[in-house]
């Protein structure tokens, strides 16, 4: 059956303005409704949501407004034959810029200068401390949308970019692609290691004590993907003991990051509140993807970014 309405679940308010998102569908062929938890669905409904709800399984198609759909039970969607789509493909620029932003800041010490600026302190660092990212090696783990967004930008800055990818296929701007089995070789010589894989059973905890030990002691970890991919206790130990130099982190095991987390207190850790993809245009990028899939659904074409 054809879709008769697009239901926008209020949980999208977590990431984008609700009204602005609904308005972005001005020219959609079906009406758009903002719905809460009291709504029921049938197969003529499309749903766009941030959070999962069991009743979405009754809809004709469900879109996760995030790239990471680890909160959704893909098995249930497959059993119920409800198509599930996600928002991958639109975060290369936004998260890519955040990744490069951490690296430039950590290298040129912008975060430290701002710390001192807060006290009106003209702080002059040790001569040996600042460095350029140019010619430094970056290892990007996972070369999908985020991974390529970071690598392209790092390559443009003259960095030596290597990566880890299951297929081993080459990627523009990445000088060497390692297989995940050779992760330790891939990260051993990198000044920056960036995590850009989805959170799955096989990536959970993939960066832990052994990986920090394999890294250089002047290396920085960048995590813009999902908190649980990095063993956070092991990261705190590695930072405490100087096994690595620092980190740029947008994602955490528990979000918001608890006030008592030691991560807040490291001078060489930059924390952003899982807003790597956030810009004033984000709702428009998502709406464009959803509108394209509404069109495909109505025309009987296969949906873009189908994950179940
Ligand atoms: P994507 O599907 O385009 O890319 C993920 C890549 O990782 C794919 O190429 C996949 O083959 C690869 N991969 C999976 N498992 C791997 C493994 N074990 N080893 C090596 N590579 C592996 O997805 P994306 O849009 O790049 O997003 C990646 C993840 O980043 C999402 O799942 C999401 O959790 C997270 N994310 C975070 C933000 C943020 O705001 N910080 C924004 C978007 C996405």
Element-level helix/strand string: EHEEEHEHHEHEEHEHEHEEH
Distance between the termini: 19 Å
Helix content: 25-40%
Which distinct ligands sit in these coordinates?
nicotinamide-adenine-dinucleotide
Strand content: 15-25%
Radius of gyration: 21 Å
Uncertain residue segments: none
What does the overall shape look like?
elongated
For the largest sheet, list the strands in their spatial order. Answer: 8-7-6-9-10-11-12
Largest sheet: 7 strands, parallel
Query: What structural category do the secondary elements indicate?
Result: alpha/beta
Supply the number of helical segments: 9
Q: Would you count the extended β strands for me? A: 12
Q: Which oligomerization state do the chains in this entry correspond to?
A: single chain
Mean pLDDT metric: 98
Structure description:
The protein contains 9 helices and 12 strands. The protein has 308 residues and is α/β, with parallel strands linked by helices. The strands form 2 sheets. A 7-stranded parallel sheet has the order 8-7-6-9-10-11-12. The chain has a 5-stranded parallel sheet with strand order 2-1-3-4-5. Helix 2 links the parallel strand 4 (61-64) and strand 5. Helix 3 packs across helix 5. The site of nicotinamide-adenine-dinucleotide has 29 residues, from helix 5.
């Amino acid at each position: 059956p054809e879709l008769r309405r697009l239901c926008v679940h209020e949980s999208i308010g977590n990431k984008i303005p609700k009204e602005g998102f609904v308005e972005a569908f001005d020219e959609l062929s079906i009406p758009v409704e903002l719905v809460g938890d009291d709504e029921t669905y049938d197969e003529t409904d499309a749903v766009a949501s941030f959070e999962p709800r069991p009743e979405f399984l009754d809809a004709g198609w469900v879109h996760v407004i995030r790239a990471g759909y680890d909160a959704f039970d893909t098995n249930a969607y497959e059993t119920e034959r409800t198509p599930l789509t996600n928002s991958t493909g639109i975060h290369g620029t936004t998260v890519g810029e955040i990744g490069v932003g951490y690296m430039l800041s950590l290298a040129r010490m912008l975060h430290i200068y701002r710390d001192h600026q807060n006290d009106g302190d003209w702080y002059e660092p040790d001569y040996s401390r600042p460095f350029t990212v140019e010619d430094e090696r970056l290892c990007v783990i996972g070369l999908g949308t985020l991974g390529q967004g970071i690598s392209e930008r790092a390559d443009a800055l003259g960095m030596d970019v290597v990566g880890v990818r299951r297929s081993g296929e080459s990627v523009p701007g990445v000088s060497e692609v390692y297989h995940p089995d050779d992760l330790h070789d891939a990260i051993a010589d990198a000044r920056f290691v960036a995590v850009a894989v989805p959170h799955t059973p096989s990536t959970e905890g993939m960066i832990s004590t052994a990986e920090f030990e394999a890294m250089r002691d002047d290396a920085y970890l960048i995590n813009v993907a999902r908190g649980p991919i990095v063993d956070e206790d092991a990261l705190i130990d590695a930072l405490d003991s100087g096994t690595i130099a620092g980190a740029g982190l947008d994602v955490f095991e528990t979000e918001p990051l608890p006030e008592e987390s030691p991560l807040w207190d490291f001078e060489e850790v930059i924390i952003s509140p899982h807003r790597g993809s956030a810009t004033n245009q984000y709702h428009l990028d998502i709406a464009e993807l959803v509108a394209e899939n509404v069109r495909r659904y109505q025309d009987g074409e296969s949906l873009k970014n189908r994950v179940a």
